[in-house]
Amino acid sequence: MNTVRLEDASPILLHQARNMELVVPGTYDPGQPIIKIHSINPSVGVIKSKIRPRKLSMIGSNGKTYTFLLKGNEDLRQDERAMQLFGLVNSLLAHSQKTAQQNLSIQRYSVIPLSPHSGLSGWRPHSDTLHLLIKEHRERNKVTPTLETKLCQKFCFCYEKLPLMMKIEVFEEVLNITTGEDLALILYQRSPSAEVWFERRKNYILSHAVMSMVGYILGLGDRHPSNIMMDRKTGNLIHCDFGECFDVSRDREKYPEKVPFRLTRMMQKAMEVTGIHGTYTMTCNDVMEVLRNNENSILAVLETFVYDPLINWRLVEDYEVDGHGRQIQERSNETKINKKAVEILEKVKKKLTGFDDVTEKYLDVENQVQSLIKQATATENLCQLYMGWCPFW
Fold first, then answer.
1. Which pick of 143, 220, 283, 372 has the fewest CB atoms within 10 Å?
2. Spatial distance between the Cα atoms of 196 and 351, rounded to a whole number of angstroms
3. What element of type H or E holds 231?
4. Read out DSSP for 13-41?
């Protein structure tokens, strides 16, 4: 990771942002002492990723260091609303007798939008994306990180243009040649003892099950390995980048996502001996039952979500923008947005009442979960995803 001196980038922030009255973002807690910004760390890290976010550290008035990612050219307002929904879900899970005993929750982090095109995202310590973990594991064992993709190209020149039946055949052949045990080995080899390994694996399964069900209700897409992180100390999964909600990825014209959540072979093999048929499925059932029992609360939060004038431009595609990239609001757009919002809420309501898109029937909790798992693991759905989603993983 490269570093930039804050004195070169923003001397005003370095020299004048001291002993401020501003609260450290994401630390405000009613009834607790207010933590104000004392100073900014003079060194700023540059993360090597697509948008090259800056790793910025603030020293609080309590003497502790708080680290954030400063992101540009990215709208974090929808991520902020997603965190609010996760807060509600955590509260519901904590107050349900069945789920409270298992300590089920979604891993959250602070998100502070600064403008429509920039914002601060809380730094998740001890966490790496699944893509980075698998890449490092394979390089350490002298295995090509893109092994499955290269095998796929070896079998056929242009996989994306193949008809469905041939895609399935190639996809299954690649799975048969490779093991897909990378994630399971990462959890095992990085644990100092059997007890720690067992605990991390359990946390991995529980956190994955919770987010699978909540992500399905939210219509969360684009769950490729770079948008899912793992806490190296606990094994918990942490999701990031909530730009594609409300089944946007399922409705897009090119490479639509046919799966309700990520449950690939590698994700399954990292679970216990029974795979998805043990703790994972039982936890999914418990979480879905809580969500369905609290349908009105969830719909109330999502209603403010889709009608929010700051972010509802995402709900329509054919909006106009000015020279600065800002939306030009028109009455016709408002009509489209309201119509789309009603459709979205109706779709979420159907999910919370057990409606199954495949059979077009209303199912009980267990059958609904089984149907979703079947869709998420179906070869005919996985083989149609774009290569960057890493369906082989």
1. 143
2. 36
3. strand 228-231
4. HHHH-SS-SSBPTT---TTS---BEEEE-
Q: How many residues does the chain have?
A: 393
Q: How many CA atoms lie within 13 A of 365 on its CB side?
A: 14
What region does 386 belong to: left with phi over 0, alpha with psi -120 to 50, or beta? Answer: beta
Q: Are 43 and 3 in contact (CB under 8 A)?
A: yes
Q: Is the pLDDT of residue 336 over 80?
A: no
Residue 325 has pLDDT above 80, yes or no: no
Q: What is the pLDDT of residue 326?
A: 46
pTM: 0.88
User: Are 67 and 47 contacting, i.e. CB atoms less than 8 angstroms apart?
Assistant: no
210 pLDDT band (50/70/90 cuts)?
Answer: very high
Report CA-CA distances (Å) from 383 to 257, 348, 376: 10, 26, 11
The pLDDT of 7-26, averaged and rounded, is 87
Beta-bridge partner residues of 71: 119
Which secondary structure element, helix H or strand E, spans residue 133, and what is its range?
helix 130-140
The DSSP element (H or E) to which 92 belongs, if any, is helix 77-95
Would you place residue 51 in the very low, low, confident or very high pLDDT band (cuts 50, 70, 90)? confident
Any idea which residue has 């994630």 for tokens? 183
Helix/strand/coil for 107: coil
Give the CA count within 13 Å in the CB-facing half-sphere of 135: 9
User: Of 46, 40, 41, which Cα lies nearest the Cα of 4?
Assistant: 46
Torsion sign across C-alpha atoms 151, 154, 157, 163: negative
Rg of the chain over all Cα atoms, to the nearest angstrom: 22
Distance CA 229, CA 46 (A): 19
Which of 127, 121, 112 has its CA nearest to residue 54? 121
CA 129 to chain centre: 11
φ, ψ of residue 228 to 5 degrees: the values are: -130, 125
Q: Is 102 helix (H, G, I), strand (E, B) or coil?
A: coil
The 10s digit of each residue's pLDDT in 167-181 is: 999 999 999 999 999
Contact 259, 385 (CB under 8 A): yes
Distances (CA, A) of 369 to 47, 260, 277: 38, 11, 11
Q: Do residues 46 and 1 touch, judged by C-beta distance below 8 A?
A: yes
| C-beta separation of 306 from 298 below 8 A | no
